[in-house]
Amino acid sequence: LMDSIPLVCLTGQVPTSLIGSDAFQECDTVGITRPCTKHNWLVKDVNDLAATIHEAFHVATTGRPGPVVVDIPKDVQFAKG
Fold first, then answer.
1. CA–CA separation, 41 and 56 (whole Å)
2. Taking the alpha carbons of 53, 48, 23, 21 in that order, is the dihedral positive or negative?
3. Which residue among 9, 24, 40, 65 is least enclosed by CB atoms within 10 Å?
4. Residue-range domains of the chain with CATH
C-alpha cells in the first residue's frame, strides 16, 4: 500500500459449497488480505465476475493506487455465464 502500485490479484478458492467447511486447501483469502488491500471481493456467481473484475481494476487505479484481490471459487471459474 505504501508504494501506491495498482495491482489486481485474481486468486482461486475451493468451490462455493465448501467455503467455511475447513475443506482441503481452503483459506479465508478475503480476511487474510483485508489489512493490506484497498478492497477485496469473493465472487459467488459467475454472472457477477465480469463486473467485479472491471470494478477491481477501477478501484486499483483510481484515487491512491493500490492492491486489490478478487477471490474466485472453483465452481465459478468453470461456470458458463
1. 8
2. positive
3. 24
4. 7-78 (3.40.50.970)
Residue 61 has pLDDT above 80, yes or no: yes
C-alpha grid cell for residue 24?
482441503
For the residues 44-72, what does the mean pLDDT come to?
98
Q: Are strands 67-73 and 39-42 parallel, antiparallel or unpaired?
A: parallel
Kindly give, in sequence order, each residue whose CB lies less than 8 Å from that of residue 75, ignoring residues fewer than 6 positions away.
15, 16, 17
Q: What is the pTM of this model?
A: 0.91
The span from the CA of 57 to the CA of 11, in Å, is 15
Segment 3-17 shows an average pLDDT of: 95
